[in-house]
Each structure stands twice: as C-alpha cells, then as structure tokens.
Design brief:
Elements (H helix, E strand, L loop, with lengths): L1 H28 L3 H19 L10 H6 L21
Helix pairs in contact: 1-2
Length: 88
C-alpha cells in the first residue's frame, strides 16, 4: 500500500512538473525565446508552490494530499553524518 501511494505521489509531481516544463521546451524549439522564458518562470513558481508546503507544520504538498501521503521527517545531512566511502 505504501509503495502504491509513493508511486501515485511521484506520478502527480512528475505530471505537474512536465505539464509546465514541456510547453517551455516546445516554445524554445519553435524560436519563441521570450515566451519560453516566461513559461519556464511559471514552471519554477509551480515547482516551489508544490515543494514549499513540506516545510510548513502540516508537511503536506498538493501531491501529498492527492496521494494521501505526508513527510514524516525533514533534515539536512552533513558530511560528518554520512558513512565513509571506499576509494580504490
């Protein structure tokens, strides 16, 4: 069940991002540079509107609400907390 919800969340996020980025790319290929940059700026705003609610007390993005998921913990890792890597 959890993997199904995670897959749904990923699908919603990917679909939302691609729905905005794809027209920007098509416009760029068609030579509409200024309009492409405007659509790309809208895409960045959409991305942040989806991501920023994770930092709020409810910790649920729009994709989380659709999939019925939530972020349980959020922390930045440091180099000291990372396991050592082997070099050959």
């Amino acid at each position: 069940m959890a993997s199904r919800r995670a897959a749904l969340r990923a699908a919603v996020t990917t679909t939302a991002d691609m729905a905005v980025y794809t027209p920007a790319c098509v416009l760029l290929v068609e030579g509409e540079f200024r309009l492409s940059m405007l659509v790309r700026a809208v895409a960045v705003v959409v991305f942040f509107l989806n991501a920023l609610p994770v930092l709020l007390p409810g910790r649920r993005s729009p994709a989380d609400r659709v999939a019925g998921t939530a972020v349980e913990a959020f922390r930045f890792s440091t180099a000291a907390a990372m396991p050592p890597t082997r070099t050959s």
